[in-house]
Structures are given as structure tokens and as C-alpha cells.
Amino acid sequence: MLVTLGILAACGSNQGITVNFVGNSTCNTANQSPYSPSPPNTNSAPVGKPIDEMPHMHVAQGTVITYNHNPPTSGCHYSLGVGTAPIPAGIYPPIQKNLALTPEYWVHNLEHGYIVVSYNCPTGCDSQIQALSTWYQTLPPDPGGGVAYAKFIAVPYAAQKETWDVESWDWFDPMGSTLSLNEVKKFYANHVNQAPEGATSA
């Protein structure tokens, strides 16, 4: 099933943005509905680019999802933690032997309106991760008031092409080999809570 959705972007030209509601054999659209509007409304002129939306359905832990976009900006995912909470907010270190933080975990954060910085640093990027962590510590609580912390995580993701990317539900902004805190700040302000369950606590 492919459904085309369109909204007017919040920019001077009011240029229409169109995305499709698409699935695949690991996350299909049967009996599922897209987030509306899609892509989410933004607080100002859109930062990044819209990505076709996959269903936001919970699946059993251990299920492997093939996401249509790399890194994912939507799709089926696990529901873990207290109640239906996504993984805790914060900066996650580079992948270690006992840490397997696959997208099926953090796509749930996107569904709840989080901003996700994903990174692939095979040779190390300690200073950039520290800079990101320092900025994260200055963030005020969720501007939507749903939780008492900022809806933000940074996660290692070895499958992406770029060293640094930033995602929200239906939106993507590649940063390349250098972390741009200014770009992360703009993307965060633009897209936080703009998601299917952005107004809910978690």
C-alpha cells in the first residue's frame, strides 16, 4: 500500500512537500495509518529533508526490521522500559561488546518526538562526542512539557554512510564527517515533538 501525503511547508514560498506512506515485508502498512500531517509540521522553515514514512507499529524484541531509509527516520520498533517508554535520553558511547543498540530500539524515540544524532566513528570521535554531551547538558526539559528532560539521544550506528547524521520522525539532515552543533541545535528546535506520539510522556 502506498499513500501519498502532502502538506505545505512552513517556508516563504509555501512549497508543497510530499511524502509517501510505505512499508515492506518486515514492516507493512496493512491496517496501519500514517502520522498526520506527514511530514510533521515544523516550527519554522524546515531544516533537513523529508523522508517517506513507514508505519509506527510495535514489534517483539528481537524482530529485525529492514528500514527503507538509512539511517531510519520512521518505522516499526521495539517498546521497552517502563510502560511503553523508549530508551532513556542521553549520549550513548561508541558500540562496545555488550551494547547492541540497533535502530529497532531508538526508532521508538523518534516516534515520541525525540531528536536522534546517529554517528559512525570507527577511528574514534571523543572530542565531538564530548562537545555534543556538553551541549546536551544545557538543554532545558522537553519544551512540550511531557517529560522533565530533553527529548534527545545520540547513538552509535555503524551502518550509516556519513560520520554524523541527525534524525526526527520523517526528517533527516546529514552532516558528513564533522559534527555541526549549530545544525543540531537548529534541527532540534525545528523538529522536537513533531511526531506521532510527540505530545505524550516518555
Highlighted features:
single chain; 202 residues; alpha/beta; six-stranded mixed sheet; two-stranded antiparallel ribbon; 3 helices; globular; disordered N terminus
Per-chain topology:
Elements lengths: L2 E6 L7 E6 L27 E2 L39 E2 L11 H9 L3 E5 L6 H13 L13 E5 L7 E5 L2 E6 L4 H11 L11
Parallel strand pairs: 4-6, 5-6
Antiparallel strand pairs: 1-2, 3-8, 5-7, 7-8
Write up this protein:
The chain has 202 residues and is an alpha/beta fold. Residues 3-14 have low confidence and may be disordered. The protein has one domain (3-191). The protein has helices at residues 103-111, 126-138, 181-191; strands at 3-8, 16-21, 49-50, 90-91, 115-119, 152-156, 164-168, 171-176. The two termini are 30 Å apart. A 6-stranded mixed β-sheet has the order 3-8-7-5-6-4. Strands 1-2 form a two-stranded antiparallel ribbon. The protein contains 3 helices and 8 strands.
Q: What strand line-up does the widest sheet have?
A: 3-8-7-5-6-4
Give the radius of gyration.
Answer: 16 Å
Mean pLDDT: 86
Number of domains: 1
Major β-sheet profile: 6 strands, mixed
Tell me what portion of residues adopts beta-strand conformation.
Answer: 15-25%
The global form is: globular
As residue ranges, the low-confidence spans are: 3-14
Structural class of the secondary elements?
Answer: alpha/beta
Number of helices: 3
Written as H for each helix and E for each strand, in order along the chain, the element string is EEEEHEHEEEH
Distance between the termini: 30 Å
